[in-house]
Every structure is written in C-alpha cells, then in structure tokens.
Batch of 2 targets.
Target 1
Amino acid sequence: MYRYDEFDQDFVQARVAEFSDQVQRRLAGEITEDQFRPLRLMNGVYLQLHAYMLRIAVPYGTLNSQQLRMLGHIARKYDKGYGHFTTRQNIQFNWPALSDIPAILADLASVEMHAIQTSGNCIRNVTADHFAGAAADEVADPRPYAEILRQWSSVHPEFSFLPRKFKIAVTGAERDRAAIQTHDIGLHLKKNAAGELGFAVYVGGGQGRTPMVAKKIRDFLPEADLLSYCTAILRVYNLYGRRDNKYKARIKILVHETGVEEITRQIEAEWQELKDAELKLPEADIRAIDAYFAPPRLTARPEGDAAVKLARLDSKSFSEWLDQNVVTHRHPDYAAVTISLKGIGEVPGDASDSQMEAVADIAEKYAFDELRVSHEQNLILPHVARADLKAVYDALVDIGLATANSNLISDIISCPGLDYCALATARSIPVAQEISQRFASLERQREIGELKLKISGCINACGHHHVGHIGILGVEKKGAELYQVTLGGSADENTSVGEIIGRGFSSEEITDAIEQIVETYLGLRLDPSERFIDAYRRVGPAPFKEALYAGETKAA
Amino acid sequence: MKVLTANRLTDGIAVWYADGGWAETIGNADLAHDKAAEDRLEAIGAAAYANNEVVDVNLIDVTVVDGVVEAVRLREKIRAAGPTIRGDLGKQAHPETIRA
C-alpha cells in the first residue's frame, strides 16, 4: 500500500502542529468559536449532540494492521472504547475531548493517518472499490488513481473553498462496488479497444435532499488526463456552482440546471486549455504510484481447496460464512473476506477497541497486513489464502465478528441518526437493530437473498436510503419519529433512486412494514434467483403499495 | 417553560445552566417561566459563549415531572440521557448523578 514520502510526513506533521496551536489558542480564549469552527472542521472535528466527533480519513478505505491497531488504541485511550466506520470508508469517534485532539492527531500522524479534509467544502476522502487489487473482475487496481487524486486535492488552493463539499469515487471493475454514480465525480477505470487504461467519467451524482444519478460525460478519458480533466470539472463547478443556497450548491444541481450537453461542452472547453500543460500525468509517475499498490507476493497455496472442502463438512456455520462473506480472488488460491460489522442486533459499523486490535492481528497473520473499510460499513481482508480461511473464521468467531450476512437484509447501512448526530431528525440505529433482530434467522435471510437495506436519520441521506433496494428515511413529524420507505434504489452499475411507496410509518410500525414488503417480494418473485431489486423493477410499486396500504383504502 | 443548554468548550459534553453554573445533567436546571426569565438565561448563555466556556448555546422546552426537569423534544431527551442504543454511555450511565 501507499507509504508516506518525506513530503507527506512533513505536511501532516506541520498540520498537526498548526491545528494543535489553534486548539490551544481556542482553549485559552484567544480565538472565538466563529473563528475556530472552520478550522476545526478542516481537521475533521464536529460538534454533535453529546460531545465533539472526530472523523479520521482512511484514504480509499485502505488500512494496514498498525493503523487499525492505532485506531483501537485511540478508541481506548481517548474515547469510549469503540469507533464507527462510515459510508465514506472513514472512521468516526463520538466522544473525544477537544483538549485531547492534538494528542490524537499526533498519534495518527505516527502511523501515516490524519483527519484533513474529512469535512468542509473541499474535495473529501476519495473512495474506491473495497475489493480493489483483489477482485477477480477488475481491469486494474483503482487505488493508484485515488492516491494521485488525493495528492492533487490535498489543500489544493483553488479547490479549498468550493460552493459545497465534493466527493470522488473510483472503481476498476464493470460491477460497481464503489457507488460511483452517486458521487460528484465517478470514475470507472477501463481499457479501450487498444488496451490502454482510462476512465469513463460520470458527473453530478449525489444523494441528500435532491438525489441525482450521475451523468456520463465521457466514455473514455486516457489515464494521463485524469488530473487535467478533474481540474476542468472542478473549475467549471467552482465558477458556476451556486453559493447563494447551500441546498442547491452541489455540482448535481449545476449539472441539472445547466443540462448535461452544455456542462459537458463547458468542461471540455476548459479541458482543451489544460490538457497539454503541466497537469498531464507522466507515464513514469503513474507507474511509480502503481508500484506502491503492487499486490503482496501471493505464493501458491493449492492445499486450500481440500482444506475448505474438509472444513465445510465439519462446520455448517463455516460453510454458510464461506458462501456469504467470502468472494473470489484474482488468484485462485486466495479469497477476499468481508468481516461483517453487522452482528444481529448490533450497531452497524461499530467496532470495539479490542475487536479492532484482534482484526489487526488477523490481518497481520493471515492477510498480508492489509485491510479495507467498505462503504457498506464492513471491514475487508482482501487477500487471504483459501487454506487459511477456517483459521480466519475461527479467529473472527472468537471476537464476535463472524456473522455470515454480507449483502443480506441484516447487512444494513445506517447513519448514526439522532442517537448521536446534531443534524438528525429521527433515530436510525434502533430501526436497523430491530429489523436485524426480526430477520435474525440466517436461513430466512438467505432465502430472501441479496437485499440492500439502507437507513438515514435525516434528509441529508448519510445512510444512503435513496439507493437502498429498500430505503428508510427517518423524519420528525408532530414531535414523533416517522419513517418513510422508498423502494427500488440501487448503487451499483445500474444506479437508481428509490421511489417513495406511500405514507410513513411510526417507529412501532416500521419493522412490520419492512417484513410485509419482504413477504410480498417472496410471494411474487419468479424464482429464488430473481433478487428483490430485479423483481421490483419488473413489477413496480403497485403490489407493495397494495400489501402495505390496501386495508386503509378500504377502511377509508 | 425553558432551560438553557450548551456544550462545554473543552470536551464538548452537554451541559445545562443550574444554580449559577453549568451542570452535567438537566434535572436541576434553572427554569424560565416567562419571557423575562428567558431573556435572563439567554444573556447568561451569550456571556458564557463570549467567555469561551460553552458553545452551541440554546434555550429548550422542558416540563417538570416529580420535581425533575425533563426535555420535551426527543433530540433534547437524548442529549440529556445519552444514546438510546447504549445505556452504558452518556448521562444515563451514571443515574446517581442524574438523581443528584
């Protein structure tokens, strides 16, 4: 994985020193809250309901064991023994004291981590496919390009005060696991007919109160032009994006209001001015960054097949975990493992200090020291020899992280909601927990099949409800929590925004409503291979509306 | 009926104005029964903010149940107790403090 060079380390150390000084001056009363707020936000420090919250960047979701161990240490020493992995592939701590944040940042810097640009109207952490570098179906590892974008966008003077925040995602496979069409810029790494690497470029996706699917504005951008083209997009956005209304300030609104054809013309015109200048990426520089992401030396481990076969016979639960949480690797003797942070009834995305340390140990011992955070709030071991899968499984069982529910209904994305967040209008975690408990039976979950359920506690949509096969949005109505359900969303290569199905449900009703939707699907699917999203696209909302509301209409 | 709440500058912990200082629990917060009392609390909050003691200062609606102040809105109830999903965290983790 990428290692800091001297410049990176000096830059991060300098920022720690600068922000530590700012914190000291704030605590001493030398600067006001109005002066301090933008400074703390630039360094990932929010104020939430109960305390400050610190959001730490995990670039493109890639971590090593030492870094995860440090996160566990921070959870124990400065927080309350746990952290929350987010849909931006980052981690948040919910209880740090402002006075401790300089020490936390110094600890992070010692393992090449920081919290820079995890908030504010700048280019945020660039996200990527969590199976990058391991996936059997990828054209090339997207992370070197995410790293190039990280270097380019870090304290970029022109793009540090954008109209609004700006998110970029990169995938290297046809099957999009990075939700690129819900991002301000989505990059799909691919090869052209000549076998050269480049990108399909999508612009103007986003969720929040106005969900939009990104529009493809270029089918193939040569890799050397990555930075010049992104600069052209950002420049057009920075110039024309609205600054009069924060709810209309994202690039998705600009793309929508300007029209795809016109904005493409503007971007291409800007790019013509830039494309042959200093932003053109030299081949040698791209390959130098590539080298940081060279896969580990995966020696042949052909004994894996027999070992897995034997262990399957021995343990039904291992066999189920294998079917659900283990995916094919580009090397036939290896596999990529999803460590579910969605234990039945648990808080989605939360991990304790000791779990983080234990997972770090597992990664060190069995996974070449590499880990990923997925935007679905799970951890990933990208390279595990099939021969070691049983040992990894047993180690995960010991720490309560062997739930075999990847991509099933209890693998829920949930924002922190009103239990923590100052912006939230309703709780989301308790809803996730109740649904998870209702569908606790793995047999039942597997019968239902792939189902992406996503919950947000307010219209800002941090829980990605718009793109859930089933989405739940919590709002406050007449002083009570009310949950609105959307169906038919998805965040893959066929991204769609879910449709509101009808009136919302109270916190007492919502789990029953979800169960009703699931039962309706089971009753109408053509066969078990027709996933919920496929069935919904075939039949539309009518049968679900009928199941949920028919009684009311008749009664009325 | 309203009380004054904020988050403490140094650690961000939720606090309520009570007995001339900032308490970590809502139970004994100073009540404002009328506009004049609200204005007085608001002035105290503004001064504490200017004095860098607290941030995010607000007047919130409350009721009194069995002599104990309780927030009206769910958001403020959660601030006053802690996350509903983690009874071991926040003010609710120390019920003896809340009673006191």
Target 2
Amino acid sequence: MDHFIQLVFSGLFVGSFYALVALGYSMVYGIIKLLNFAHGDLYMVGAFAGFTVLSAGAGVLGGGLLALLAVMLVAMAATGGLGVLLERVAYRPLRSAPRLSVLITAVGASFALEYGIAVAFGPNPEVYQMGVSDGTLNVLGARLTYAQLAMTAIAVVLMITLDTLVRRTRTGRAMRAISQDPKACLLMGVNVDRVISRTFFLGSALAGAAGVMAGVYYGKIDFLMGFVIGLKAFTAAVIGGIGNLRGAVLGAVVLGLLESFSVAYIGSEWRDVFAFGFLILFLTVRPTGLLGERVTERV
Amino acid sequence: MNDESTLRAGEEPLAYAGAVEERGPANVALGGRGVATPAASGRTTAGRALSGVLASRWLGPCVALAALALPYLNSSTYVIQIAVDALIFVMLAVGLNIVVGYCGLLDLGYAAFFAIGAYTSGLLSTRFGWPLLATIPVVVAAAVLGGLLIGGPTLRLRSDYLAIVTLGFGEIIRITANNLDVTGGPNGLYGIPGFGDFGLRSDIALYWVTAVVVCLAVLFAGRLGRGRLGRAWRFVREDEDAAEAMGIHTYKVKFAAYIAGAVFGGIAGVLFAAHQTAISPPSFNFLWSALILMAVVLGGMGSTPGVVTGALAISLLPELLRGAENWRYLIFGLLLIAVMIFRPQGLLPARTGEARRRGRRVRGGAS
C-alpha cells in the first residue's frame, strides 16, 4: 500500500511537469491550430536561461525557495519573449500558407533552437548549481521531498493563474473567442495578432518555468532535453482533448500516473515506449481526448 | 482552393481566417504556382537554361549513367564509401517524398522504417543465416506492417496528428531496438553479410548493387507520381475535401502513399545494413528523420530531380564541412524556416505534365 501511494505521488509530481508544458501546447493549438514542435525546445531554453541566471548571480542568489522563484521569473520572461519572437518570425508569415508548410517550419524552429543552444552552450550537459533543501516528509507512509512538494505547489499556482487569466480577463476572453472563430473576431475588432502573441508568451513562459524546475530537480540539463518532453506533453494534451486547458492538465496527470505505474511494473527502459504507445492507442480509440468534444471551449 | 492561393499575397486577414478553418492540407508547394515570390518572376537567361536542362528527358538517364560509371572514374575506398551513403540517402529522400511531397502527409519518424528494414534483414542474416537478398520480402512485409500499425489509426485524423505520431513511432522503434536482447541492445547487430562480391572488389560490388537499386527506386517513384495514383495523391494534398467529393477514397490513397514510403525506407534499410555491416540504435534517431525531411523540403517537395539533388547536397555537404556539426544543424533549421517562408516550392520545384494546363485554369478551379 505504501508503495502504491508512493507511485501515485511520483506520478502526480511528474504529471505536474508535463501539465505545464502541455498547457502551452494546447493553448497554441487551440488558438491557431498549430502543432508547435518547438514547444518542447522552449522548455529546454527555459532551463538554459535559468542556468545562465544562476551562473551569473551565483553569489547574490542563495539556495532556497526565493532564489528559485527569482530564477524562474527571469527564465519565464526570457522564454516567453522567445516564444513571441518565434511566432512573429517563423509562424506569422505562414499563417495563410498550407498547413504542411507551417508544420515544417515548426520542425525547423525546433531544430534551430536545439542546435542554437548547442552552439551557444556547447553540446555537453550543464549542471545546475542549486540544491533545494533535501528534507523529506512522510505522507501516508510515502516519502516526499520538500523540493517535490514546493515544485508541485508552484506548478499548481501557475496553472490556477493561467486558468483565471483565460477565464476572467479580457485577453482570455479574446483567446477563447479566436479559438472559436478567428474571422468573426477580426470583424468584431479583436486584435488577433496581439492576442496570438500573448498566447505564445503565456504558453512559452509556462514551458520555461517547467524547464527551470526540471533543471533544479534533476540537476542536469542538455540541449536535447526538450524533445521527449515535447512528445509527452503532446500526448498529455491529446489524452485530455487538445485545445482544452483543463483537459491538458488532466491528461498530464493521467500520463504521469500511467508512467509511474508502468515504470514500477514493466521497467523504466520501456517508459517512453509505453507513453507513445498510449498516444497511438488513444488516437485510435478516442481521438478527441477525455474532455474534448467537437464543440468545446478551446484555448 | 485555387482562389485562396491567388488571394494569399495581399489579403492577409481573409486568408488567415481561411487557413485557420478546419480545411485540411491545402495546396503545398506546387511548382511556383500561387506563391508569388520575386525569385519566381525575375528569371534570368541562365536560370532558363538551367530549367531547360532540368526539364530534359535525358537528365535522369544521364545522372543514372554517371552514378553507375562512378567506380571507373574514381574507385578509392573513400569515394565509394561516401557514394554508397549518398545513394542510400537519395533512396530515403525519394521514399519520403512520396509521403510528404506527393501526398502532403508529414512523416517525422521516417527513420523508423529505415530501422525496421535494417534490423529485419540484419536479424535474419546474422541469427538465421539467411542470404541478404532473401530477407527483402520479409523486410517489405515488416515495413508494410509498421505502416499499417501507424497509418491505420492516424490517417483518418487531421494530418498534423500523423506528424507527431510518426515522431513517437520513430522513438518507439529506436528504444525497442535498444532494449531488446534479440536486436543486440545498445550494441546492435554486427557481422551482417553483403550481397556477395560477384568477383569484384566487395565495396564496388555493393556500390553497383546499391546504384542499380536506387536508380530503379528513383525511376519507380517518379513514375508512381505521374500515374493515376500519383494524381490522386496530389489531389489529396491540394484539397482533401474536394478530392473526397470527386470520388477519391482519401483514406486508401493516403494509406497507399504511407505504405509506399514505408517500403522504400525498408529497402533502404537493407542497403544500409549491407553497407555498414553493423547497425545500432543511435543510427536511427530523430536527426536522421529530420535530415531526410530537409533533403525533401530543400530540394522541392514532389519534384524527383529536386529531391535527388537535395539528398545529394545534404549527404555530401558534411564531408566538406567536417567538424562544425552543431552549426550545420543550426543552419539547416534556419534554412527550413527560410525556405518555407520565401520559397515553399523548394529549390528545384516540381514540374508535372499538367503544368501548362494548370496555368489556364487558375481561376477556373478544379473541374
């Protein structure tokens, strides 16, 4: 039983990572129907931005949670800005082009980001110099580190913030409207370009936050780390129903739990195979996802 | 769809809204049409001469002859080695071109079929002592099976799902090869026999086998694209809804393209296994799939001469620019974006038999 709860916790923890990345995937897909292959790489860039801040301010920043938050904010701003730039340079000129062109551009963007970082930081993994306190906590017989707890909490706060943003603010309303009918939005005087830029900013910033968290938690980052997580986030978004924000979170948690149990019972070397196999299975059985409907609120 | 492409240049908002709508893959990179880039209009005499050469029916046979004659020109081991690599890459690019170029489906895990081919023939020849030639039917069957597995569920969905599922499939195959004992795990398989040496130096014999197979494959793919099925593929690529309305079974047609691509990839895998004599999982990572895609996109989707040129360029350039791997890939990535924005039809765009008629029908729409 203890073991079971431990698996649930680790699943939830991994799931919260996936959720942060999946949200951005889902938002961008919801609003302009683009699979942003570069999204996983934005997560990687976030980790590297955090790494830069950490190495620059190694003396000033202590350990601790506050330092983590500061690093995360900077990294989020950087990746958010990069996301906006990416949209402006690579995707906006192709909005009216055939879908295949945009997909190929996204692959190119992903490649450019990966190897741009490889050129800038060198191809070897970098080590995050930040130890978050290693205390553990016993909950229902399962062990939880404070770091895990803190990161899950941060992730949840970010998700709630995003949800409120999308549901309560003007920009959020504009996003939801564009995802339903961009043409009508244009006629109603919504500044479509600006809203799309903001969507990219939000989605990329969340991915950047997840990147910093991954860097702190795993301690090691490299320029290809975004590839698999991008795929996983997409899987999560599909499981939840792509374009649906709460669905993305749900899908991420489901995927995290599934992975956690499959690692325990099948073996960790099969984890990725299991996740992608699940994606294919899901597309066969229920391509609209758990919460996705034909007429659904999207963004 | 034709109307939309002519509007594209000026009417941003309308065209944007059109693109966001649920319309499937629209017209992709067809020889210069509707893509009003300055490059297409301002053509120089040299450019016209070049395109004359490219349109010539003798171009294909000449290139094939040159490929076959290479060992007479230069038979150093290094040159033959590089040339076999390049030819295998050409075969992969031509195969992917069927999927991406003709049918407009984005396959990001093409290396998976390459791996299936290499591993199937490698396993049968090393563990069971089959001659390499005899493994080819099994390889074809395995590639078709893989295509069914992935294409079956995803080809019914929007085309971008296929892209990401194939990306996942590429990883699945690689990780599976890495984890199983039968495939040698991370060490892979070694000691794969060649096709035999026919009394020649063994690498030259392999070169000729490869050259003949690849030339036939290029010819076959080119003719496939011009036939009835090829027309159906292009129609599906241009406008899936219209194609369906015209009585094309789009699912079957897309399936055919996907399976054809899989078989090409599988056979290229056999050649690769014979050439390398040892295969291991890292040879089949995403980088490969991306490089093949780049060859297709840069050369010109749907254009056989373009794709062959693109493949030769992508596989031979690294030999010239050794040591700057990461820079090279960075530039490839940026180049992909730039090509899609400024010249989506590729460097050597497709010219089909319908090119002249198409010019007249721009406004008339598909009749």
